[in-house]
Design a protein that fits this description.
Shape: globular
Distance between the termini: 29 Å
Strand content: 35-45%
Structural class: mainly beta
Number of helices: 2
Order of helices and strands: EHEEHEEEEEEEEEEEEEEEEEEE
Number of strands: 22
Length: 325
């Protein structure tokens, strides 16, 4: 696999306040969309504020594919303390997904199927649909079809494990250069318990201050925006080759900090707004046309292609049996 350690020539930008990162009239952003209240939790409510049951009940497709040609077992799962490569930290669980040898979503991942809230200030709403998720030609594909104008059909998957507490998660993926979406790997429990790697593909997004598509590394604020909280965030250029060749995007979520890497090169490290509550890990590709974040929506299909996912993690009931993070 080709590596792309060198980032492009754009200057890195850090935001120090909510005003810098979020447009006051639009609210702040997360991988789900606009987060203005700071009181949300997983799963996000629909725009109609419809009551939700647990994520496993009504936000994800968990029905096994029993077709003869389907293979769902291309996953390596280990329990017992093991050290995540590149760290000094041991975790109690290890999962590895390789999509080159499956033709259906492997066990342990779920497809989101729900309307997302938080689009009230954007030109369109968006909804996650299982029809936009596929395993094809060695990749997990998350698709936003082009040419949409109202409710933007988007794509998302999440872990079946919903009680992670600290993890090292690596996604190897080819990003889509099509303008007008947000492509993400992130932990999310609520609007105040979230850490993200997000790619904004539109140069016209006002959150890309360079005027070029950028990667965003963020710990969302943990005190609530209405209480004056602000996120910890930084953006960098997209690595060379990211639209043609798989690149590894990694978050180390530890007890006292989060560290972000692109193909093994550290790009950001934060010791503020570190999540502390258990929750799931998610990957998505979406748009709502909002000029302050995704811009768009895309004129043609945007497809984020994930080649593999590897994660080391602890669960809420594990305690400190591996020495802690």
């Amino acid at each position: 696999m080709a590596k792309h350690n060198a980032l492009g020539d754009l200057s890195q930008t850090s935001f120090s306040s909510t005003e810098d990162y979020c447009k006051p009239e639009a609210g702040c952003q997360s991988a789900f969309g606009t987060c203005s209240s700071g009181s949300g939790s997983y799963p996000p409510k629909s725009s109609a504020d419809k009551p939700k049951a647990s994520p496993a009940q009504d936000t994800a497709d968990t029905t096994p594919d029993t077709s003869a040609s389907s293979s769902r077992q291309a996953v390596e799962e280990k329990s017992g303390c093991s050290k995540a490569p590149g760290t000094s930290v041991s975790f109690a669980h290890h999962l590895s997904y390789n999509f080159s040898s499956v033709d259906a979503l492997p066990d342990g991942l779920k497809v989101s199927d729900y309307p997302s809230g938080g689009d009230s200030d954007a030109p369109a709403t968006h909804t996650f649909l299982k029809e936009n998720v596929a395993v094809k030609d060695g990749y997990l594909e998350l698709r936003v079809p082009g040419g949409q104008r109202s409710t933007i059909k988007s794509a998302e998957v999440q872990t079946a494990v919903e009680d992670m507490v600290q993890a090292s998660v690596r996604m190897t993926a080819i990003l889509s250069a099509v303008e007008g979406t947000c492509q993400s790997s992130f932990f999310y429990k609520s609007d105040t318990q979230e850490t993200d790697i997000e790619f904004l593909s539109s140069p016209s997004s006002t959150s890309n201050p360079s005027g070029k598509p950028s990667l965003h590394f963020t710990n969302q604020q943990t005190t609530g925006y209405q209480s004056g909280g602000s996120p910890t965030t930084k953006n960098t250029p997209v690595p060379r080759g990211a639209f043609d060749t798989p690149v590894e995007y990694r978050i180390d979520w530890l007890a006292d900090r989060t560290v972000f890497y692109v193909d093994g090169e550290k790009t950001a490290e934060f010791d503020k707004n570190v999540p502390s509550e258990p929750g799931p890990w998610l990957w998505n590709n979406w748009s709502n046309g909002g000029e302050d974040w995704t811009a768009g929506p895309p004129a043609e299909d945007s497809v984020m292609r994930i080649q593999g996912i590897e994660m080391w993690y602890d669960r809420a009931g594990d305690g400190d049996k591996c020495g802690g993070a």
